[in-house]
Specification:
Elements (H helix, E strand, L loop, with lengths): L2 E7 L3 H11 L4 E8 L6 H15 L5 E3 L15 H4 L21 H11 L4 E5 L4 H9 L3 H4 L2 E5 L15 H5 L1 H8 L5 E4 L1 H4 L3 E2 L1 H9 L3 H20 L6 E2 L1 H10 L7 E7 L21 E7 L8 H8 L2 H4 L8 H11 L1 H5 L3
Parallel strand pairs: 1-2, 1-4, 2-3, 4-5, 5-6, 6-10
Antiparallel strand pairs: 7-8, 9-10
């Protein structure tokens, strides 16, 4: 049975790759996408999500959410130098053909969590504002989810906004403090592992070689991301698959090795492992949060499985009784060009 999934995104380029991965992974059933500010504005994130789903041929609902941080005004500039002026590598050619679903992201999350109590996985790959708002409205939300996977944080490596701060946590530290202390069944996927998950340029080039509209779009979009990485990390072997790795863990938790950490969350004391600024919890209770943080490298085959995972043609050939990992390895070793033909 496929896992029920909601993606909470600020749709830039790696968010788009994560959406494509989720859509074409038979292990997952995408119930909907919720959007927030972050890489770009929430309006642009909603538009980009709709455009991408249209290109992928999927009708999942897209529900707009927070336009600013939980407890302050917008302060972090959008990441247009990384994701392009439009958030998708300057590949925007027009408006989506359909509109966002009615309602807001927090209510959508709550509604699906109640409908699929104990069976819903939520993967959050942007600022955690929508989840913080949902917690205000539904304090029992942590008990309703099967799993919450957050792409955020940097423990043993430098941040990508400041020396100690990762972008998603930095963009709304109060929301992060609230969500991390709420008691979710939580895993964090930080820069410690995502910066080891690199997509090589040669694989992106092969998307374009397929001669399809989708292949050209995805390749041109990702080329912008690649160039940004080359500019701020000269000599790097590719671009990081931050958000796709979070989706990958919803499919197969063995992609990473786990280290359990204890994080002190106290009234008025900085979250030193998470946020670079002083944050106040919304509860005055002092407590300790135990969480799983993925500190070590993933299995070396994650990039291969990611590439094959959203290649619809290959996945549809997978016999129901054949384990997907061994299938991908077989294809990769014996039919390299077929596995790399992603689109």
């Amino acid at each position: 049975m496929s896992k029920k999934l909601i993606l909470d995104v600020d749709t830039g380029i790696d968010d788009a790759l994560a959406i494509a991965y989720a859509v074409h992974s038979p292990e997952l059933e995408l119930l909907g996408i919720t959007t927030t500010f972050g890489n770009i504005s929430v309006e642009e994130a909603t538009r980009n999500s709709l455009i991408l789903l249209e290109k992928l041929g999927v009708e999942a609902p897209v529900v707009s959410g927070a336009h600013k941080p939980y407890a302050r005004e917008l302060f972090k500039p959008y990441s247009r130098h990384i994701h392009g002026e439009d958030g998708i590598g300057n590949q925007l050619k027009g408006a989506p053909s359909r509109q966002a679903a009615s309602g807001d992201a927090a209510d959508f999350i709550i509604g699906q969590a109640r409908r699929y109590e104990g069976r819903l996985t939520l993967v959050a790959v942007g600022p955690l504002t929508n989840l913080a708002i949902a917690l205000d409205r539904c304090p029992e939300l942590p008990q309703l989810l099967d799993r919450l996977i957050i792409m955020g944080g940097a423990v043993t490596v430098k941040g990508n906004v400041t020396p100690t701060a990762e972008a998603n946590i930095y963009a709304d530290p109060e929301a992060a403090a609230y969500v991390l202390g709420a008691g979710f069944p939580l895993t964090l996927v930080g820069l410690d592992v995502t910066m080891q998950t690199l997509l090589p340029q040669q694989d992106v080039d092969k998307w374009r070689e397929q001669g399809t509209e989708l292949g050209a779009f995805m390749a041109d979009m990702t080329d912008f991301y690649m160039e940004a990485y080359r500019n701020f990390r000269p000599g790097i072997a590719g671009c990081a698959l931050h958000d796709p790795l979070a989706v990958g863990l919803a499919i197969d938790s063995s992609f990473v090795e786990y280290v359990q950490c204890t994080l002190p969350l106290r009234w008025g004391i900085p979250l030193k492992l998470v946020a670079p600024v002083r944050c106040k919890m919304r509860t005055k209770l002092k407590h300790w949060l135990r969480l799983m943080w993925h500190l070590k490298s993933m299995r070396s085959d994650f990039c291969v499985i990611f590439l094959a995972g959203w290649y619809k043609k290959i996945i549809r050939r997978l016999p129901m009784n054949l384990h997907r990992q061994s299938f991908v390895h077989t294809c990769f070793k014996g039919l390299h060009l077929e596995v790399d033909s992603l689109l």
